[in-house]
Design brief:
The complex is a heterodimer of chains A (138) and B (163). With 138 residues, chain A is of the alpha+beta class. Chain A is 49% helix and 17% strand. In chain A, strand 3 and strand 4 form a beta hairpin. Chain B is 61% helix and 5% strand. With 163 residues, chain B is mainly α. Chain B has six helices and two strands; from the N terminus they run βαααβααα. Chain B has one domain. Chains A and B meet through helix 1 and helix 2 of A and helix 1, strand 2, helix 5 and helix 6 of B.
Chain lengths: 138, 163
């Protein structure tokens, strides 16, 4: 059987690396979600009956201020009373950030009415992305 | 991070990240380290002038053709500039390592740049935010407390009363 030309071999390896990276990212996100499912219902600020977003941020996170917070405000305005947003300063409540396995900021956890975590976004999540995640279980 | 919000066109950032990813992966597939050095040069030049390195591609080709639309957002340009500079240094190291015979190290470094650019492009993952967050959590001196207003992470705070 003829050996693959080096170019094709490297191309195949590049595709494999990309696939493994995507799988690893999804695995980490799934692990975070599984852990968050057990914690969300115990969050004091969460009021059962309304879907919610738990939003971890820090005062020095520019991406949080510039992009994530406006996206959450847009979502709240659009859903008017049908969404609760719980903002947590990861510096002020490090035990909570540690319990939820927050790896970076901004991180948003999307909760259903019963407080079960359904999605996690590591990094900025646009209003449309959050809306589509909320729509999956509304 | 410093509270110096201006307006940053995030479309130009996304085009920059996409170009970096495509060219570095192409460099790897073609086993052509000089392409990695070219990407590094563009990134470092962009960092020096405070613009995305592949801005000419965005402003001169993609935007006029209507392939991408501007997406200006109030943002601080400094973290993006830092990320581009850091990526440029690593991409340069990748090219140099390959040319000096350290191909495995070189291409691993190139893939690190690809991974960070891809995380930012596809997941909105801010590597700078993550680094600063973890340095604070680990209690690294200089990062254990919130910096004074207007201080860029790692930099000395301005003197009280200074402009």
């Amino acid at each position: 059987m003829p050996a693959l030309p080096p170019f094709l071999l490297r191309l195949a390896l590049a595709v494999l690396i990309a696939a493994l990276a995507v799988a690893a990212f999804r695995l980490v996100s799934a692990g975070l979600l599984a852990r968050a499912r057990a914690l969300a219902a115990r969050l004091a600020e969460f009021e059962p009956g309304t879907p919610g977003i738990v939003y971890f941020t820090t005062p020095d996170c520019v991406a949080c201020r510039a992009a994530q917070r406006p996206a959450l405000k847009e979502l709240k305005d659009r859903l008017a009373g049908r969404l609760q947003v719980i903002e947590i300063d990861a510096y002020e409540r490090p035990e909570l950030a540690k319990a939820w396995r927050v790896l970076t900021v901004p991180t948003t956890f999307v909760l259903d009415r019963d407080g079960r975590a359904r999605h996690v976004n590591q990094g900025v999540a646009t209003a449309s992305k959050l809306l589509s995640q909320l729509a999956r279980f509304s | 991070m410093a509270e110096s919000l201006g307006t940053v066109d995030h479309s130009s950032l996304r085009v920059n990240q996409a170009a970096i990813i495509v060219l570095l992966v192409a460099a790897y597939v073609a086993n052509f380290p000089w392409l990695s050095l070219f990407v590094a040069g563009v990134m470092l030049a962009g960092t020096l002038v405070g613009r995305p390195g592949f801005l000419p591609l965005y402003a001169g080709v993609l935007r006029p053709l209507g392939i991408v639309k501007p997406d200006p957002i109030p943002d601080n340009p400094q973290p993006h500039r830092f990320a581009q500079g850091f990526g440029g240094v690593v991409a340069a190291a990748a090219g140099i390592a390959c040319l000096l015979g350290g191909e495995v190290l070189g291409w691993v470094l190139a893939w690190i740049v690809v991974a960070l650019a891809a995380l930012n492009l596809f997941a909105g993952f801010c590597a700078g935010c993550a680094v600063y967050y973890w340095l604070n959590r680990l209690g690294v001196p200089g990062f254990a407390k919130n910096p004074p207003e207007g201080t860029f992470p790692g930099m000395r705070p301005k003197r009280l009363g200074a402009a």
